[in-house]
Amino acid sequence: MNALERTGKRRTIRLSASILLLSVWSTYFYQSVQPEINFPKLFSQIVRFILTVLLLFFVYKGNKWARIIALILFSAGLILAVIAVFTIPHQSFSTEIPFYVMIIVYADTLFHFGFSRSFKAFMAYQNHKTANS
Question: How many CB atoms lie within 10 A of CB 74?
């Protein structure tokens, strides 16, 4: 593994961890404002988290279909986060900060999965490693 591939691997892991942290945050944020735990919604959020983990695992393994699905879903997340900043009434700037974090993480992930040379090199390495196994 050369330096470019290692960089792609590290960034993929970091951005995947960031996406998973955003998923945990959104679950906490939704449940924390409810008077009681909404178990059906919590169950769907746990399923969404598990599906996100699986999707990111397949992206890490070098599957093109997973990368395309991730690009589509993270694009939708980015668009929704931008809309939320401008349409949801916020009492203070501190309530907007999580949405700005979402915008930054999703935009960085979209760039990395879509255009980054290091990610493309890491994908090629993963696919080559899989083909030789």
Answer: 22
In whole angstroms, what is the distance from residue 78 CA to residue 100 CA? 10
* Tokens coding 132: 């030789």
Largest separation between any pair of C-alpha atoms in the chain: 56
pTM recorded for the entire structure = 0.89
Close Cβ partners of 50 (under 8 Å, ≥ 6 residues apart)? none
> Is there a contact between 45 and 114 (Cβ–Cβ < 8 Å)?
no
Asked if residues 96 and 81 have their Cβ atoms less than 8 Å apart, the reply is no
Return d(Cα 108, Cα 29) in angstroms, integer. Answer: 22
Tally of CB atoms within 10 A around 87: 7
Question: pLDDT tens digits for the chain (133 residues)?
Answer: 899 999 999 999 999 999 999 999 988 888 888 888 889 989 999 999 999 999 999 999 999 999 999 999 999 999 999 998 888 887 777 778 888 999 999 999 999 999 999 999 999 999 987 777 6
